[in-house]
Amino acid sequence: MKIGECKYGAQCRFHYPIDRPAVALSTTKPSQQENVKLTLAGLPRREGAAICVYYLQTGTCKYGATCRFDHPSPV
């Protein structure tokens, strides 16, 4: 579940609980909520995971710190 504002406001047909903590709203599995080292660019270093192909091609990642792939330092 994403956190933010709904463009429909009070007319939205979905329920958005306010009293739930942000961690409970996360869609990641508990095993993936470990402390991950970040690069200077704020991208995750997930050693042992596949390297982010988009990051290799462009040098950026649209998912940022939430990306599930590894982002090694450029050589």
Largest sheet: 2 strands, antiparallel
Count the domains: 1
**Helicity range of the residues?**
10-25%
Low-confidence stretches: 22-28
Query: Which structural class do the helices and strands define?
Result: little secondary structure
Distance from first to last alpha carbon: 36 Å
The count of β-strands is: 2
Strand percentage, roughly?
5-15%
Assembly state of the chains shown: single chain
Shape, per Cα inertia axes: elongated
Count of individual helical segments: 2
Widest sheet: strand ordering: 1-2
- Helix and strand pattern: HEEH
How does this structure look, described?
This protein has one domain (9-66). It is 13% helix and 5% strand. The protein contains two helices and two strands. It has a two-stranded antiparallel ribbon with strand order 1-2.
Q: In short, what is this structure?
A:
The protein is low in regular secondary structure and 75 residues long. The protein has helices at residues 22-25, 53-58, and strands at 37-38, 44-45.
Task: Outline the secondary-structure elements.
Blueprint: H1 22-25, E1 37-38, E2 44-45, H2 53-58
GO molecular function, one term: zinc ion binding
Zinc finger (C3H1-type): 1-19, 46-74
Organism: Rosa chinensis
